[in-house]
Amino acid sequence: MLEILKDLCNLPGISGREDKVRDYIISKIDGYCEYEIDPLGSIIAFKKGAKTPENKIMLDAHTDEVGMIVTGADSDGFIKFANVGGVETAVIIGRNVRIGEKNIPGVLGIKPIHLIEKDEEQELPKKDDLYIDIGAKSKEEALSLVSPGEEIHFESEFIEFGDGFIKSKAIDDRAGCAIMIDLIRSELEYDCCFCFSVQEEIGTRGAAASAYTVNPDYAIVLETTTAADISGVKGEARVCVCGDGGAISFMDRATVYDLNLYRKALEVAKANNIKAQTKTRVAGGNDAGAIHKSRGGVKTLTISVPTRYLHSPCCVCKYEDIESVRDLAKAMISELAK
Amino acid sequence: MEFGEVRELLYKLCALKGTSGNESAVAEGICEMLSAYADTHIDRLGNVMGTRGEGFSILLDAHIDQIGLAVTAVDEDGFVKVARVGGADCRVLTAAQVTVHGRSDVFGVVTSTPPHLKADDSDNKVRKFDDITIDIGLSKEQADKIISPGDRITFNAPFDSLAGNRIASPSVDDRAGVAAILRCLQLLEGKKTCRLDIMFSAQEETGGSGAKVGAFNSQADEAIACDVSFASAPGVSAEKYVALGSGTMVGYAPSLDYNMSRRLTEIAAAKDIPHTAEVMGGRTGTNGDDIQVSGRGIKTALLSIPIRNMHTAVEVVDLADIENTARLMAEYIIERSAENA
Fold it and tell me: Is the CA virtual torsion A108, A109, A113, A118 positive or negative?
């Protein structure tokens, strides 16, 4: 699963441009399940298990990552862009990116610190003032290399470091995708549907359509969520802790989770000796927001890999947590099927 | 791509890592590169010194230290606390990738404060330097085995080939200057010249100690310092700052030798070498300042290479500007050598 995760993370796939990620997933699940591609580009896969379940179960992870999109070039040849998904200025200035089909390299430049006025010292550049330098000398040259509407992704390769940690872009949510690929390639006790949904980062859009198509009784969303277990942060402010297993949400900004289902997940984890924890903050949102309201309603669970520095080029998580989330998801498929 | 020689030099030079006071890895690599053109040694402060030829002497200088950080402590959670080494830019550190040079090289990520822990009004504010910590994915116990206070930290980013002959990389300041001097020596190969003292100096970013000492040991008749300066970009007005690719910047300042500045400009014009003038009102803020008042004093000139995003991990340079700096130095040396033969 680690190799598949690495390949997935290194592929470009901002919202609406998930093609390469989709092609890779298909190459890994082909032969292990039936699948179709829906009109938006989500993969809806049906995996046959040993038994047919009483309840229809759907697992979901999103294939898109946050990034940027080319809006144009200014008269000096600098590329202007818009954010795709929630991207903070602080984590993109002074960084390397790649643009479009030709993988054009560029950097986010900034006015040198030596030239900053006193009143500019404490402020980051405004969003509208951000630009990407691809080395072009004119607007014509810039637009001969990149086009408006092309995707821009972070240049940040997958690295293992420290004590079992991973750094990469797009762990959100290639981790969820890797887990689902792993489950599809294994033997399952019960039939299960897997949705590799598009466009989560711009408003959980793919999942709205895929949940409608699948029409499940239960859904399990496999995500990543902010781990604030960094220097000096204590207690519940940490939200979840790397190394303590999948973080299960009882509530976030988009979903009030079924309390019994949330408690059940923690019980199942404990009974199976799988590490799991509670997400100790009502914050964020994910595909569960769209899924639980689909058609007549779906009982939904979210299990997340604790991830530091989310929505930056350098997401950090512990690989063993991805394994814990996979183990719990597998156990929950069997639990909810009955 | 054109300018293959300069590109190769810059690529090799930027791959070496060393901050002020910890340049040994860089010094060794550069010493080896310089030994193809001169007799070399490394002095007490870590300057790489080289010499070739006899008689009238010109000192060529570029600094080898790059900006970075230093470990001040490992906290109880295993995160690394830091101090600046040289003028590292705090604005671009959030979630940046670094290497901590401990007993072995350790990968790290500068932490980023999650939204729910930020103060309400802090959305677009630069974080304070004291809040910076580095995540190396280890417990304190594990970290203490590899990392100690004083260990240096450098910034990780790729050597990117942009359009045209532009490069984005960490430590273009001042490996571009080193590359220009090495290229100049390549251009002078096989030619008889006056004595050339080459000084690839340590500790420029922290106050110029290396250059002061190296220049004292050289006591050349003239010196040319080679550093980087500001190129225009969004927010860096083209009215005040030169364009990337506009050539080498000949320094003019009360503290620089006026004759040398004018001579360099004349030669550049005569030899069709793209150039601009960079005029400063006092000192230059480069090694040139320290070289000039070393010992009895040394007549000093300054050639600068325009770059964007100085002191970040994405400094952008046009290889043509490095090549033209090298060409001008070489032509100046040839003329001064002939005059002093």
Answer: negative
